[in-house]
Design goal:
Radius of gyration: 18 Å
Distance between the termini: 27 Å
CATH architecture: Alpha-Beta Complex
Oligomer: single chain
CATH class: Alpha Beta
Structural class: alpha+beta
Helix content: 10-25%
């Protein structure tokens, strides 16, 4: 489940990635059209072809509501777990206070279906790239030397603004793994803002 991005934000992030790519060629960069703000990843919890479970997931998601749309501002560039050992390059998401409860409500309605809840605090972000591990003596290690320029650029962009979005629906996506990276197909959309009575 995820929130979508506006074309304006996708263009800004596409420009950002085009500028960062030459600084670290040993990273797998995400295509802007594939970006979204993940609320819940269910992965293998719903096996391909299990239409019964998928129908139950769809019905449960239709019960999730919030009092207002989610406001998001996309700002800054950083790393998971940190700049010293970068594995993921991200764009920060500063969101209205109802985003984390929305993600928690999705967790709550899916747990009775056997889909485990998250054990980490919800931290909204957009993944820009995943760092490839370098091989050394048969062991994998973080490719730190190749990311110096990237870390420097991220520091300079810690407050850079990449646009904003206001979303009133989230989407159930299917992830399709392809040689060029994952592709996402919307299976269903859910308006989560309660209508005024």
């Amino acid at each position: 489940m995820a929130l979508d991005l506006s074309d304006e934000v996708r263009r800004a992030l596409g420009d950002l990635i085009a500028g960062l790519k030459p600084l670290c060629k040993d990273a797998r960069w995400v295509r802007p059209e594939a970006m979204h703000v993940t609320l819940k990843f269910i992965g293998h919890a719903v096996p391909t072809g299990d239409t019964g479970k998928l129908d139950a997931v769809r019905a449960s998601l239709a019960t999730v509501h919030s009092g207002r749309p989610v406001e998001m501002h996309f700002r800054g560039v950083g790393f998971f777990p940190n700049a010293s050992r970068p594995r993921v390059v991200w764009c920060g998401v500063q969101a209205s206070e109802n985003l984390a409860p929305l993600a928690a409500d999705i967790d709550k309605v899916l747990e009775p279906l056997g889909i485990p809840g998250e054990d980490r605090a919800f931290l909204p972000h957009l993944t820009l790239a995943r760092m490839k591990a370098a091989r050394s003596g048969g062991r994998s290690r973080s490719n730190r030397g190749n990311s110096e320029g990237l870390r420097s650029a991220a520091t300079e962009m810690s407050e850079k603004n990449f646009g904003a979005a206001r979303e009133a629906e989230f989407h159930l996506f299917e992830s399709i793994t392809k040689p060029g990276g994952s592709e996402y197909r919307k299976l269903e959309s859910y308006s989560f803002v309660k209508a005024r009575e």
